[in-house]
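Table S2 (continued). Query chain:
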Amino acid sequence: MLETRRNFILKSVKYAAFFATATSSLFNSILAQAAWPANIFKQTQLDDTLNQLFGNQKFIKTDKIQVKIPRIAENGAVVPIIITSNLENIETLTILVEKNPATLVAQFTLADETEAYVSARIKMAKTSNVIVIVKAGENYYRKRKMVKVTIGGCGG
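Corresponding output:
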């Protein structure tokens, strides 16, 4: 009985030390903290957001970006979107909604050799263009789709 109690206490102390070490380094790790570009999310005009994100880049309209999004969204709070592309060397994929209070919705950085497939649910304040910009190599490609946001699905 004495041997078992000692083993139990010894194991308890070891596990407690392990979890204390693991959680303290996890919560304080600089690598675990993402940079938040607050100034970009404050932009309310599409042109200002595009200028801040991409400078004076020219965008190439393309059919090599497929955007699957409903033409009529019954609930602007959860609009499903699926983006795929067969462009080579895609580095970033950016989703913008023209008439949202903050036009930048999301920006994804894709690793090399990653299939360009993004599925998300975005929030739309009102009927607007959804713009997807893909950086592939040195070029920037754009695809635009109009989405009508209705209130309760009544077309209003």
